[in-house]
Amino acid sequence: MRLSDWNLPLALPARLSCAAVWLAASLFQSSAVQAQVTLRTIAQSGASVKFGAPASARPGLCREVALRLELIDPGLRFAGLGRDAPLRRIELLLERGEIDVFFCLLDTPERRQRFDYLPVPIYRVRHVVAVRVDETRRPANHQQLAELARRSPVLVAQGSVLARTLAKANVPYLEAAPTDQAALRMLAQGRADAVYGQDLNLQPLLKAPELAGKIKLLEASFVDEFHYVVVGRHLNKAAVDRVLAALSQLERQGLLRELQDRYQQP
């Protein structure tokens, strides 16, 4: 809204100083900043580190980012975190404009053709390999992993962009499991020799009774990359700027690093 929209007389009285006009405009702008904005989002199924149980002590790193953005900007709301969907479905929803924003997504050239990434990284992940505890082979790079996978392809969760990393490195792989947890179960059952995934996703799953003492993560890091907040291209610039401003403040306060450190702990 402009000052001309306030129905002020064309000729301002002399007693109405420029300072008064500036103050009125500032008050209006301040109230506009606090206007309620509700953006549609969704949680990712099968990704407990990103979206855990809402009422638990660890509700998920990405869920916590959304909640903290609401605290920084009280007029900003993210609706839809009570429902979830597989990652491939989420990408379609975002591309079609059925949701406005998603927390959090790895950056790829293909995805950049469909969505817009906010330039503040949320957290870093490492590509790692899980094997059975009796496995003696320890691949330290993709070439060595490809040699291990010649007998039995590496498992990777369906819909994960990590599959493209394996493909580019000529590592035989299968997207035979819907989630990382399902892939680890197959590994424990001897149906594969290795699972390729992200450290933050795989590490907590190893504590499950069905996997405890059976699976280990190798120390090697194959790739380091970051997760970001992504927005649909249908979203107006004012809303995007608002999310980015709150996200930038979250980073300056050190809260993004604090969240990552907490979720990296077993």
User: How does CATH name the architecture of the largest domain?
Assistant: 3-Layer(aba) Sandwich
Rounded to the nearest angstrom, the distance between the terminal CA atoms is 51 Å
CATH topology group of the largest domain = D-Maltodextrin-Binding Protein, domain 2
Q: Which residue ranges are poorly predicted, with pLDDT under 50 across at least 5 consecutive positions? A: 1-32
What global shape is seen?
elongated
Helix content: 25-40%
Range of strand content: 15-25%
Structural class category: alpha/beta
Largest sheet: 6 strands, antiparallel
- How many beta-strand elements? 12
Give the gist of this structure.
This protein is α/β, with parallel strands linked by helices. The chain has helices at residues 18-33, 61-72, 87-96, 109-112, 142-149, 162-168, 180-188, 199-205, 237-252, 255-264, and strands spanning 37-40, 43-44, 76-79, 84-85, 101-106, 116-117, 123-132, 154-157, 173-177, 195-198, 215-217, 224-231.
